[in-house]
User: Fold these one by one.
Assistant:
Number 1:
Amino acid sequence: AIALVLSIAPAAIAQSAEEVLEASRQAIAEIQGFDAQFKMSGEGGSLFADTMPSMSGKLFVGTNTEFGRVIRVIGEGKDKQTEPAKPLDMLIASDRYVWVDRAEQQINEVPRGRTLRGTPSSLTFVFIDMMLDDDPYAKDTNDAQSISLGIQEEIGGVRCDQIVIKRSKAAAKSRNTSENYTDTVWWIGVDDKLPRKVDRITDAGMVKITLSFEMTNLNVGAPDAKWLDVNRPEGFKFISRMPGQEPQPAPKQPTTEEQGSIAPPRDVQPTTPRLPRAPSFAFSVGDGAEINNSSQLDRVTMLYFWGSWCAPCAQTSPLIETLATEINNPSFDVFALAIREGNPQSAKSSFQRSYPTPRVSVNPDGVTNAFKVRVFPSIVVIDRAGLIVFQRGIERDFGAEELVAAAREAVNSALSES
């Protein structure tokens, strides 16, 4: 551990690198969105100076009615410093890239993560695209050789914790050349736990290249819908390389001269809300039994996602035990799913000693991903028909007692339905 001597409140420094990352995961999951100024630059010494990319502008993070959570980027960028700057109007969603090509009068759409011919390299340099993932820091922390806490620094006037991640050699030799970096450094706001800067470093001994992405003037809040889609000028051809899509003219829309000539969002017809069906899941519990969608049909199921490293879970777990003992119904099951446990047996034994009623499963990572759980603790309630009737995590104004009380109400309602 690195000792920090800073003239700030003691509570602000009493965290490990893992705790800072976990707090940031929760903060990212809880916000509805934000906007910020950004700049991206590269450094690799005089030999590579002319080949370094750069871009700057404004970005918006929020929920698009069609694509879900997205990142909209407006500005200008250069693939190389010797080239002229080009305007940028790009959208990154969980499954696709969308961008405007004014020279060709086209709106293009391709699967995210695929390096198809013609896809702007600038899309791969928006290093905060990890905010669209279930675990925002998994790409860097999975298989990391080390994760450590560096010195605190100010980024754009915001004091930040510095997290230094050394990647494994295998991870640094990905087939995806945009991920061939050896080290990552994150700067995460001390107060709001949101990322402000990330450096991706490729250290090849004689050559060291650093690509930096930095955000300033960050404003938390859901952006207006008009900022969460690219401009779609009348007459531009829409070309999609998503499965099953055919090229078509862009829908007619009025344009504005406001930053990037952004058009209003497309109309979306309202639909009748329906309960989502639980995704396919399977995990084993202590007695070796496999729990899955089929085993839980005609039963009411509660999944409690927790971790021994999770401070709010220490307040929530006793309430889960009380709920499990008080709702003594033969058609009701409570499963405590321990996540990200370094010592699975210790976590399981400790939990079962204190809270013997819920059945425990340790590190069922596929279940966490299937239900897109990003906040811990979280509770999911599934009814007899396999529909999700409740799913929520702890929040700043929705603590352990409120969370468990709401889950209890959902369980009682599901049990009352024959």
Note: The chain has two domains: 10-23+33-249, 282-416.
Number 2:
Amino acid sequence: MEEVGRLLRQAREDLGLTLAEVEARTKIRSRYLEALEEGQHDVLPGKVYALGFLRNYARFLGMDAELVVSQIKDSIADDDVIKVSEDHLPAYDRRPKRVFLGKGLFKAVIGVLVALLILSGIYNLWPSRKGNGEIDPTIAEEQGPEVKIEDQEIDPPAILPEAEEKQEVVINVEDEQGARCWVEVLADGEKVFTGTLERAEKKVFIAQEKIKITLGDAGAVRVTYNGQELGTPGKKGEVVPMEFPRE
């Protein structure tokens, strides 16, 4: 891993970048970048994160990310599975709380309930009468129309197809005097563009699986991959091939 770290540092220094500048562009903390360069994999938060950081860092530097990862993948220890038990959770009291009423309040509540039951019974037994004191025989018949609720078949919710994940590469030519770059782009193995991009020109390329680009003047452009700013991938006049496979 130390040899890979030396290559990472050399590539970064060749681009004239500091760890702080790389952190700002890749969103990888500088202490993790330094750990990758020093071969101190024990500083990294875990194998999955370590390989992810390494892949993004190498890709940012214009290196063959998969080749770099394959060289040290087996030298990093597998992550330990962290199990969280109830002993690690906050010690909340999970027992049901009991609410106790004072004797006086308890008697008052019982008295109110008994009174309500008595009044309810008297109301139900008392016959309904008309204004002249006679019992109205039609009260029982004066009911609303019977409402029938029929079972209705409900269509199951439509299952929308998942949006296909695509690979997107954006190439921006620097807005400065004389900036231009010859570009060749292959999307999923098919050549989709060959030509020269002029000053401040921008091109977007999309593929399902893999995008491969060749830059004739890597120092004149900035590259963005799936919304992540990768910066300038090379020096002025340098020819740099870049490959962006689906992860």
Note: The longest helix spans residues 103-125.
Number 3:
Amino acid sequence: MPCPDSEFLTVSAVNEWCISKSTEPVLMPVESKKEKYRRRLTERVNELVHTENVYVERLRHVVEDYMPNMRRSDISPYFRALEADIFGNIEKIFRFHSEEFLPALRDCENDLRKLGQCFRHYEKRFNMYVMYSRNNKRATRLVFEHKQFFQGIQLELGDRLDLSSYLLEPVQRLPRYKLFLADLVKTYSNYENERSETESRISKLSVDSDETGGSNGESSDNDETPLESLKLAKTTVECVLTAVDEIMALENITDCPLYLNLLHQGRLLRQNEFYVMDTARRRRQLMRVFLFDKLVLITVVYRKQPRVEYFIYKDDIPVDDLGITAKEHDQHKFTIWYKKRNLKSYKLETSDPAIRNAWVEGITSLLWEQAMQKKELLLQQRNKRISMVSMNSEESAESERNDDKYNSLRGVPGEVKRLIADKKVRRTTWYCE
């Protein structure tokens, strides 16, 4: 519809012309799936860096505002003494993220391979979250018990969030990393699939296949791909989260003997629920069993609420005294027992053969490693004894040579004759020249 002549403009004519123009098709650039996935990847990386900035600033607020208030001279010494119990190692976490991890993330920009390597590079540093999570339960309880005191600090700071919310931030950060990395892995997989399909279609139409079917320049044969790097980073975070879950499970174990410190039993390798029968009492009961590097711990499961469970100490078997019996035809049971007290043993039963086999392999591996370590220790002790005997022999021989050197009359025949003449020498053999 042509534009109405300016001499005959009316409101209805203008409206009709505008409506006709609005219905005309407008050609907009269509975003391909490949471009969509690439944009999604960029957005997620930017979001990761942005949330890391926010996280660091919240940690800074705790370290620079809340913690100094716990050190003031005008507050009770009791509250000053609670600083370590409430804040744990949050200051170390803040220093790590502000000085190392956040700058490293910024340097990655949109290099996904470098981003994945960044997480793996700091794997050991992420382990500080394990100890923080272990302390967080106690910290939350202390803040709740003294909420009036901490609410006073909150009002002084004009803070919208309370201290408990800030202390929860590190506990939530690792799961968020896992979600970010999982989304990046999924999106990049879709991006790679779409790019492969596009290149495949183009290569069929292209006269020169070398121009479209070659490498995209993102990785060489010797380098890992961005997808592999992201998957490994996700596995790294999952391992730390597993360690956090394990240490939190230990916090729910009660009534342990005074001699037993679970933090000194090495790694927690696995934990599962079994129906356990004490062969001496012939009682079968649902129990949670923990396998450490140095110990097997047996506990009774006690559920106070559907999502709250505790484990009451039942017994423990040091790996040094541990034996295992597993029959190949029975894929649901195995027996553990004391080597030194054969009468005391426990039969463990599970409905999942995979769990049973994992435990049998895990315990067998521990016992094999222990046997190899003992063998190596015996060899070292034997070599040490041989070395000591050899050293003693050499010292004895050297001592005899020194005695001969200083006490014999070798080379002094005149003196020998004189001593013999005086009959003051009882020595019967002389090595005189």
Note: The two ends are 138 Å apart (CA to CA).
